[in-house]
Structure formats: structure tokens, C-alpha cells
Design brief:
By secondary structure, the chain is an all-alpha fold. It has one domain.
Length: 301
């Protein structure tokens, strides 16, 4: 399993997505078995890839690089998908979730595989407390972003179910969507849980940046930091509106969930890609590819 690549689980998830689309043609036992088999195989390969990356960098996947962090997010989404599919084979969540997972994995191809600057700095590597805070920062962000993905998917499911019921359409045999009321409740809770997690994760990241000396210190004039701040303000605005509005506006909540978390995810991914490309251009491919092991050795007295 040491030779597992991103393509291995990307191909498995792609087949899973194709099988999900084929389910629209009707109920098939073979389709379900193949679908679950490829999803499980993809998750296994995905897990081994992240484990191998952790061994190569001597860091947890959440800290080793933005590339790995994004793949952890995709891994969480696929684990949730497989769990829900095993629990309810007729649930049509894969039609909405798997395309997002494929986009996340494809985006990871464009990101650097070197550690984040906060992790490379001597302070983080030498002091376990700092690395613990960095782990908390990355964990809160990935869990919050996973909640955002759930809210995004639930929003799409709500609008699809609402449109289907309004036009009196029927779902394909063997495929179901939850009731509008149930989707709305889950959507509300996913937003209420994910926004505080993301806010805490960003707060911890700001604290780490301000407490780090040298070139890795946080700069509030950095365009990436400014863009993150704008995305956070949009998210907080939606969160406050959600807590103060009536539940009867479920369709509007679903639409805002889609727009808010799509904006957040796209902003994070695009900004990281741009930052990654600029870093390579500024330092050159030789410096950008410095392995973590050498950084650890230099930081260790």
C-alpha cells in the first residue's frame, strides 16, 4: 500500500458517482453492491494514502500540508456517505455529495504538499504545546468545514425535494429523499454547529499567527487573510440571521446555506491554490519542495 496515489481513490469515487447516476434508471441489486464496494475500496485507499503521507512528513495529515488537509475533508465526507448508504440504501445523498468530493480531490492536485508555514516554524516543531494548538486549529477547521459541506448538501436536497413535490414528480425506483421538515431541521443544526467550529478554528489560527515571530507571523494586510475575513463575515451574517428568523422560511434557509457555504469552500480552495502558485513562483520549485524531515532536523538542536 506504499504506492497508493490520489488517482487510486479518485477513480474509485468516480465509479461510485457514475453508479449513483445509473441508479436513476431504476433499482438494481448489482448496482448497489458495486456502488458500496467501490466506495469502500476508495476509502481504504484514501486512508492508506493519508497514512503514508503522515509517515513521510512525520506529521498528522491535518498538519502536514493544505493538500493533505483538503483530502482529510474529502475523506470525512466519503465516510459519512458510506455510513448513510449502509444505513439507508435508498437515500439519494450520493448524487449531491460525491461531485463535491471529486472537486475537493481534484483541487488538492493543485496545492503544494509542503507544510503550512505555521507548522514549519521552529516554535511549532520544537514546542509540543504549539503543535497541539496547531492541531486544534486544523481539527476545528476541518470539522467546521465538514459541517458546512453537510449544510450545502442538505440545502441542495431540500430544494430538489421541494421542486419535486411542487411539480408532483416521482423519484426513481429505489431512491428516496427525506421529508422537507426533516431536511430543514438537519440543515438548521448543521449550520448552527459548523459556524462556531469554524469561528473557533479561525480564532486559534489568528492566535498562532500573532504569537509566531519572523517571516511566518500573521499579517492582516495579506490578501488571503482579508479574503478569509470577508468569507467569515458572510458566514457570521448568515448565522445571526438564521438564529433570529422563523423556521417557516426553510426554503430561504436552504438557498442561503448553498450560497454561503459554496462561497466559503470556493474561497478557501481558490485562495489556497493561488497562494500555492505564488509561493512556488517566488521561491522556485526547488525550495518549495523541501521535505519536512529536513525542516525537523534543522529545528532540532
Amino acid at each position: 500500500m506504499a504506492d497508493v496515489t490520489v488517482f487510486c481513490f479518485l477513480a474509485s469515487y468516480l465509479v461510485t458517482g457514475v453508479m449513483e447516476v445509473l441508479r436513476l434508471r431504476g433499482k438494481s441489486t448489482i448496482n448497489r453492491v458495486v456502488l458500496k464496494g467501490f466506495a469502500f475500496a476508495g476509502i481504504v485507499a484514501h486512508t492508506f494514502y493519508l497514512f503514508n503521507r503522515s509517515q513521510q512528513t512525520n506529521l498528522p495529515p491535518l498538519l502536514s500540508s493544505t493538500h493533505d488537509w483538503l483530502l482529510v475533508l474529502a475523506w470525512l465526507a466519503m465516510v459519512l456517505y458510506l455510513f448513510l448508504t449502509l444505513f439507508d440504501s435508498d437515500l439519494a445523498i450520493g448524487l449531491f455529495l460525491i461531485p463535491i468530493v471529486l472537486v475537493l480531490i481534484g483541487s488538492a492536485y493543485l496545492l503544494q504538499q509542503q507544510p503550512n508555514q505555521l507548522v514549519v516554524s521552529d516554535e511549532i516543531l520544537v514546542k509540543e504545546a504549539r503543535q497541539g494548538w496547531a492541531m486544534l486549529h486544523a481539527s476545528l477547521l476541518v470539522l467546521g468545514m465538514a459541517g458546512g459541506l453537510v449544510a450545502l448538501v442538505l440545502g441542495m436536497m431540500y430544494l430538489a425535494q421541494h421542486r419535486r413535490l411542487r411539480q408532483k414528480q416521482t423519484m426513481a425506483e429505489g431512491m428516496t429523499l427525506p421529508s422537507l421538515g426533516r431536511i430543514a431541521r438537519l440543515n438548521w443544526w448543521s449550520v448552527v454547529i459548523s459556524v462556531p467550529l469554524l469561528t473557533l478554528g479561525m480564532a486559534v489560527g489568528v492566535g498562532l499567527g500573532l504569537s509566531t515571530d519572523g517571516e511566518t507571523s500573521l499579517s492582516f494586510t495579506d490578501p488571503v487573510i482579508i479574503a478569509y475575513g470577508v468569507a467569515w463575515l458572510v458566514m457570521i451574517g448568515f448565522f445571526i440571521w438564521l438564529l433570529t428568523t422563523r423556521r417557516s422560511q426553510d426554503r430561504q434557509i436552504a438557498s442561503l446555506s448553498i450560497w454561503t457555504f459554496s462561497f466559503l469552500i470556493v474561497s478557501v480552495v481558490v485562495l489556497q491554490i493561488i497562494s500555492s502558485k505564488l509561493s512556488i513562483s517566488a521561491h522556485g520549485p526547488a525550495q518549495a519542495a523541501i521535505p519536512v524531515e529536513s525542516s525537523v532536523e534543522e529545528a532540532t538542536p
